[in-house]
């Protein structure tokens, strides 16, 4: 079993050995290389979709589609391998957050694995016309790390009396923030509230209520203020785009669960690719009327599926 990262310890690089071994196998990519690999991957996805459709094709066409699908998968692996540094750098960067947790609450490998899932998600949804891959992928890596940390926090049991005490602390902080017009309130000031002591406020503050990767890291002197401002602005734009990607991905997942492959294709071509009925009909060897019936039926099924309550 891998050694876990405990409070007060330096993070051992050996715990990330599987990731570190892979770094260096693939060089950093230029913007053009990112674009080309992303396009190859998307072409490969489309080729896979065509291969999954039950249609008679010549052996030459099948071989062409299989080659494109293989090239797409190779491009996907190249994008992942060349950007493992992002997972490692963000794991090291945010590992200090783990010091908020007692004992072995979080395994550093879990943090890296969550970041890896974010990298894979970024590769699959990346649009090279929107941003550089490193910026887009970093957002997804941090999102997946945050989700993993949130899940871990929810498993840490906190006594009920401490939950009640925290309510008092938060109430006192809020009142002081309103009166003093500032966000950061000293522990001593909070402790002046009725039924609170400085020791109790400190205990509440030390418990792992939340862990956020959005908190600013101490300024280590790396990068100018202008660079940090630019990164912040870029991140805001990417976050808006990523939110759209999240909603789109959720819809795609619902389509996979509720619709037949042909119904999925009809909706994808109609609403993602902007094809009309006759164009879709030509692709599927169907009449315009038949395509419309499939589309309407698929929309009804999808709406019903989305309205169903989530199953635990």
Could you characterize the architecture of this molecule?
With 312 residues, the protein is mainly alpha-helical. The protein has 3 domains: 13-154, Four Helix Bundle (Hemerythrin (Met), subunit A); 160-206; 240-307, Winged helix-like DNA-binding domain superfamily/Winged helix DNA-binding domain (Arc Repressor Mutant, subunit A), CATH 1.10.10.10. Helices cover 68% and strands 0% of the residues. It contains 13 helices and no strands. It has helices spanning 17-22, 31-52, 59-82, 84-94, 108-125, 133-155, 160-180, 187-190, 198-206, 225-258, 261-272, 277-284, 288-307. It starts with 16 loop residues before the first helix and ends in a 5-residue tail after the last helix. One of its GO terms (molecular function) is sigma factor activity. This is Sigma-70 family RNA polymerase sigma factor. It holds the Pfam family Sigma70_r1_2. InterPro entries: RNA_pol_sigma-70_dom, RNA_pol_sigma70, RNA_pol_sigma70_r1_2, RNA_pol_sigma70_r2, RNA_pol_sigma70_r4, RNA_pol_sigma_r2, RNA_pol_sigma_r3/r4-like, Sigma-70_RNA_pol_init_factors. Residues 19-46 form the RNA polymerase sigma-70 region 1.2 domain.
């Amino acid at each position: 079993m891998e050694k876990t990262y405990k409070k007060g310890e330096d993070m051992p690089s050996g715990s990330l050995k599987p990731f570190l071994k892979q770094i260096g196998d693939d060089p950093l990519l230029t913007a053009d290389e990112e674009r080309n690999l992303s396009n190859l991957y998307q072409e490969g996805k489309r080729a896979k979709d065509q291969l999954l459709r039950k249609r008679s094709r010549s052996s030459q066409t099948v071989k062409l589609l299989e080659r494109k699908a293989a090239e797409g998968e190779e491009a996907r692996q190249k994008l992942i391998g060349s950007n493992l540094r992002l997972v490692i750098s963000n794991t090291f960067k945010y590992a200090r957050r783990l010091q908020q947790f007692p004992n072995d609450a979080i395994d550093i490998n879990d943090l890296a694995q969550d970041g890896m899932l974010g990298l894979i998600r970024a590769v699959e949804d990346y649009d090279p016309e929107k941003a550089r891959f490193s910026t887009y992928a970093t957002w997804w890596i941090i999102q997946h790390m945050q989700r993993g940390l949130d899940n871990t926090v929810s498993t840490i049991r906190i006594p009920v009396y401490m939950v009640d005490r925290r309510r008092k602390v938060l109430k006192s902080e809020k009142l002081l923030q309103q009166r003093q017009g500032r966000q950061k309130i000293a522990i001593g000031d909070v402790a002046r509230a009725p039924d609170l002591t400085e020791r109790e406020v400190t205990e509440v503050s030390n418990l792992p209520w939340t862990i956020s990767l959005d908190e600013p890291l101490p300024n280590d002197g790396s990068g100018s203020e202008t660079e940090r401002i630019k990164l912040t602005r870029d991140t805001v734009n990417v976050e808006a785009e990523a939110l759209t990607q999240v909603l789109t991905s959720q819809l795609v997942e619902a389509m996979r669960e509720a619709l037949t492959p042909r119904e999925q294709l009809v909706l994808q071509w109609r609403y993602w690719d902007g094809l009309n009925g006759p164009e879709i009909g030509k692709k599927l060897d169907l009449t315009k009327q038949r395509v419309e019936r499939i589309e309407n039926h698929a929309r009804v099924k999808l709406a019903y599926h989305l309205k169903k309550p989530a199953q635990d």
